[in-house]
Amino acid sequence: MKAVIQRVTRASVEVDGDVIGRIDAGLLVLLGVAKGDRKADAQYIVDKLIGLRIFSDTEGKMNRSIVDICGQFLIVSQFTLLADTAKGRRPGFDRAATPERALNLYEQVIGMVRDRGIHVETGRFGAHMRVSLDNDGPVTFLLDSAAEPSIQVKFPRGESEEVLE
Question: pTM for the complete prediction?
Answer without folding.
Answer: 0.89
